[in-house]
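Hey,

The postdoc asked me to send both predictions to you directly instead of through the lab channel. I've kept everything plain text so nothing gets mangled by the mail client. Protein one:
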Amino acid sequence: MKAIQEFVAVVERWWAVEQRTIKLISPRSKLVPRSPSLETIQANDRPIVSGSVQPVELRKDRPQPCRPLRRRKNIRHPQLAFVLTTLSLTAVLGQRFYNQPGLQVGSVAPNTIFAPADARVEDKETTEERRRDARNGALRVLRIEPATDEAVLRSLSSLVAEVGDVRRQAGTVPFVATSVLSTQVQSYLRRSDDATWLKLRSLIDPLANESARDERVTLDTLLRNQTITPDQQTALGELWAYGQRSSSEELSQLLDSVERARQGYQEAMANFTLLVSQAEGVTESPQVLDLSSQEWASAQVEIRKAAERMLAQGIASGLPPDVLDRAVYLQLKDTLPQSIEPFARQLLLSTLEPNLIEDSDRTRLQADMAAEAVKPVFVEVQQGELIIAAGDIITQSQFVLLDSFNLSQRRFNYWGLAMFGGLVAGGVGVFLLVERWVPQRLRQQDYLLLTAMVVSAGIMKMVGVAAYGLPAIGLLAGSFYGPVLGGTLVVLVAVLLPVGATVSGISFMAGAAGAFVCSLLAGRMRSREELALLGGGVGLTQGVAYLLLTLVVSPVSLISAWSGMLTGAALQGIYGVISSIAALGLSPYLEHLFDLVTPIRLAELSNPNRPMLKRLASEAPGTFQHTVFVSSLAEAAARALGCNVELVRAGTLYHDIGKMHDPQGFIENQMGGPNKHDTLNDPWLSAEIIKKHVTEGIVMARKYRLPKAVQSFIPEHQGTMLISYFYHQAKEMTKDEPALIVKEDDFRYDGPIPQSPETGIVMLADSCEAALRSLTDATPDEALAMVNRILRARWKDNQLVESGLTRDHMALIAEIFVQVWQQYNHKRIAYPKAALAPKLS
């Protein structure tokens, strides 16, 4: 303990030296003239701030954020408290050291051990590990999704119907009698290109013209000087033969029929090309248009049957394309004309989709059955049989036997617990060091609550729910003490608890991740609703962390038990939400029990609908309006100085509630009526009435169970200031009655003076409010001069010596007060009298 105190003292001396060094070498000390000292101000009686008012955001020499003065902690015996905290945390968290085996798995056996008797012992750890592996290795159970089947068949039918429409547009073969032209020639002529047809037409046209017919011209004569393919020669021969045996008119009709067939076929081919371009993976196949109606009808039936068979067998997601293509090929093999088989295969592949989805219930059942099928692992040994030889490393099965014979040397591990106690002491020391660097000062009840949180983590470990209670601890600690202290507490618990006790690794780490996120964000929440939403985010964080950690530890689960991992992640998310709900339910009770001021509680206290504030607005309306303006001044200054704005707002709203004991005793509530103090004509009694608003305010605050941090604004906003009006009135009375004795203490408030920057700011705002409200046509410089005089008076009266505010803070506060006054005192457009006069109908 002495070593820790010496270390802290060294750190404080180092920090003080660093601060003095920074102040001496900072550029500001060279570029900006140093402000005069308090003695110089008192001597010269000049303002704290000189010159015109500048916007706060333009100041380049803004002072450092205010911090409360470091005072001795409210702990009677800090050394004893440190020792008791360390011992209690060590006792609760160090559970593994109470009955720890001396011979553990992985340790070296000090001597040879034989079995003292026959034994057959279950190795529960190995059994559980095998069951876990069996559960993770269980195959997924898939089922066919009927909706996918219907969609695939519907898509296939639609695509086949479109192909049928194109076929009808292309027409059928034969389009003329086969006695005129053979079917082969008709098919060739229909799909021939324009150049081929024009060439054949030019050779056959003389026969279509009666006047140009020449009986002596033969086919050989026409082909003598022509380069022609065998197909063209066959077609030309049949056309020539028909022309020879028919009239020119009949030949012309035949040629027109061929022309119409070719035109329909070409239009159909254009539409067919557009159709296959829209179907992914399908290429053109003109042979489809050449099929007869019977062949096409048969092909449609076979294609649909193949699709139904494949869907009935099931198509798994992620099936390699070549495997699927091979399956389609085997389904269509020998069932279609060979010419259109590739097209049919492509058509089917373009519409097929995976229709197998995981049946989560049956998969879970399959995994449970696989785990139950694993038989318990037993380790057997005969009496006198060697269990382990000296110097060998102990295995799991050997440890089970040793432990069953009470040879594992279980005992209370004093040295292990002592070392763990040192680790706990170090953790407590780290927390105390971190606490010294944050502006928030912890009280004795705060340390007690934090210790209780850590102890609760150890108790939850005993009942097996430590992983699920961590988010609640993180939410409460972060909400009560901010992200730095809350995050530090969560990290220390997450480190110490696994060292002192056996925890479930993945679940505990997931809970720690959720708790850490909770502790960082809880302090930013300003309502219970936001905290509830944060609980959902914590649940999501915990579930994702569990999923990622499971994948890292058991990558095989990615293939075999994805549903199990998702179920576990979902459960972790639910646990996180439940934990946050529990924290939300506990937080109001803890706030009242330990007198905590959280941002949420301060926001609730600042609600104008609170009974006390509604009563103040109705019974002392002038005081309520005064409070609102003081709150505007104090909040702006607190925000600029980095103070607790929520605390300043709440404290300002309640700082004058004591005036409700006698509202007419304060001029803001007299509304132009007679002044009660003029009737009394007794400055001592009037001073007592004025001072009584502090004591009565404290009584009311205690009755309504306001936090002590808010109660402190009631006496500290007046400090020990002099009630100067009645003091000088009493002085004047001594001129007529010399026997009267005027004691300054009778006209001073009882105090204490402000003990924090927040209460100091409210004192200054309260002092300046009436003066600023009285200004109407004053310039900003005149307003600034008046504010400086008031602030200087409070400074010279030593009202701020314990508040943590500095003269640089006074300068900035004066500027901010004037800026807020300018916002309240903004100019308005003067309406002409004619616009305000009532209009006559």
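Protein two:
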Amino acid sequence: MPTALHEALSRVEASRTVDQRDAELLFDARDADLERLLSVASALRDEGLENSGRDGVITYSKKVFIPITFLCQDRCHYCTFVETPGGLLAQGKPSYMSPDDILEVARAGAAMGCKEALFTLGDRPENRWPSARAWLDQHGYASTIDYIRAMAKLVLEQTGLLPHLNPGVMTFGELQALRPVAPSMGMMLETTATRLWSEKGGVHYGSPDKDPAVRLRVLEDAGRAKVPFTTGVLLGIGENNAERAESLFAIRASHERHGHIQETIVQNFRAKPKTAMQNDDDLGLQEYVAAVAVARIVMGPDATIQAPPNLTDANELGLLIRAGIDDWGGVSPLTADHVNPERPWPELDDLARLTRAAGYELRERLTAHPPYATDSAWVDARIRPHVEALAAPSGLADAAAPVTGRPWRAAPVTRTSTPLLRRAAADPAGLDDADYVELLGYDGPELEALAAVADGLRVATVGDGVSFVANRNLDSSVVTDPSLIGDLADEAAALGATEICVQGAVPAHLPGSTYLDIVAAIRARQPGLHLHAFRPTEVADGAARLGVSVREFYEALRDAGVATVPGTGARVLDDRIRGLLSANTDPPASAWIETVATAHSVGLRSTATMVYGHVETPAEQVAHLRALVALQRRTGGFTEFIAMPFVPVDSPPIAGARPGPSVRESRALHAVARLVLHGSIDHIQAAWTKLGLETSQAVLLGGADDIGGLLLDGVIAPEAGAEAQRSLTIADVERVAAEIGRTARQRTTDYGSPTPEQLAFARRSDAPPASRLQLKVGARQIKLTPVTPLAEPVEARTA
């Protein structure tokens, strides 16, 4: 009678796909069953290679290891990479590699023809070790991430090596900050087995950055940030087959949403001396090879599956090829594998010979795999010349390309004026609708000229800064407890926020007065915070539950302490489009307009918004902008305009929708918005969480003047915000502004300047250092890293 494993093998042989339950069974394939599994995996790999035009090719990256720091805040039970400050001191090593030492390794690698600099390090050592924090402070770096960004740029400019960054857990803002200096990044998922992190005795117990939920969030954020990303699983650390399958399917699901997983590493546990797992058995060969084959089948033919060649004996590497790998990862002719120092790299000639013996050719690639290296959507414009200089037309490495440093800067642009642009410059808001539609289609030199006209108008209207507000989001659909809301308000103020933004329909079982209770809870704790709260749909909801008019509800919110309201939910002010986007659950465009007009009439100013890049036409975009101008002339209540690109992964499926706007469309729309809104709405915001920082900089150079909020998360309940885990620091905004020749300016919600009273907490002379700030919440002492408001003009610090 066939066993469950044999039935699973038959299914995968027939379909060459696998579900999670069958994957769990296939990990147990051995001997003859393993041979059947390898045949399927190998055929899938060959299909993918043929699809990509690299038939018969297995790749690798010629690299150097740059261990930026051996310190880490985690305590993984199998790791020999990590040191303690005392251990480093005994070896005469500093907390971090110096720039000179980094360049010495990178230059030596470049001289040997390496093209990748793999930055490897422990997770956020400054959170655990005072010596790490002191080193960063002494050398002028806000964080380890800040330091590796500077060093990646240094390596690019001085040596030409392409950085691949592995700093562990990164926030969305940090991914955005690192993207302009590295063509690719990575972080091993390792496992989704939460028990190995949460239960005493688990290999990740006591390691804050090894929470699977946190690491899965990094995968999602990397996809949103358009970062070519390397991840993978570490097998043999205590996980079971169900958890192995779950981990691979989690990686696949993230890639299906974003398309960013450039390679999946399947790594086998090797016991190391002087660790808590030194007496554990290594992962068995057949068990490992079966897992590699399952990974290939789960990820599919077009995925890249990597196995480190130094963690398997040379005479057994052919089995990994049969299991479906198509990449050996980074191999260094110069530096050791600092994570597995007991396992030397194979000589490249030997690796080529062993690969050839299995019927494949070994070819060098770049740190960004070919589909990403050749696609401008995935490579920041500032490092595109660095990548192109080392890439062959296929996207693989050009073996003959010299590895040499190049300046890190955006390419020059050319501009071509047109009669229409000359009319736009003379009378920005006076063109016909057809004229604006034509401008929305501009590209190339004409688009650059349009951006220049809009940018000149921006300077004349609001000056030359990039403004931002220090704020925190609160999702009132998930957080309604007054005590917790008060705690979050306290934390926001302690972090330096001047605004708290509240959005979200309160749960259906609660009365409409809950909206007012939320306001009261914030006002009771932090009367000085500017309260920006409740969208038109939530106002309509609250009014209906209380049986009062929308005007009466707005008046109640105003009297309770709401200062301004979000103008979100505008989508595109066309009922056909609104019906398509929300299955007719949104109110008609006229209802949105009248609700916002009512807010303005009771003294509550609002933002104005648009969601674009889905099913609307350029003419409908222009009509939307015209409707905002008409309402502004009637009420004068809009503070700013925010154009938010459609992000399909955040929305239910919409028939006929585009997959979001192109960068060209975003640039044209923001520039045209500056023209149409001239004289009506002065401020135009770059929605950085949706645009990404690179495109935000592009629109800031073409009419936009504001980057929105920092979106501070805190530590009490970081998930309480609508865009949780996506935040910036003031240093991030300063850098974004400086890179485009501008200066950062902190503002209030309504575009004023924060008063000394609003900034009193962080400016107090007796305020504790950021790294040691404590906030008492009930019986808890919470450690915070506050926003430090600017104590001197930004202009003086970024000149």
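Summary for protein two, as requested: The radius of gyration is 28 Å.

Thanks,
C.
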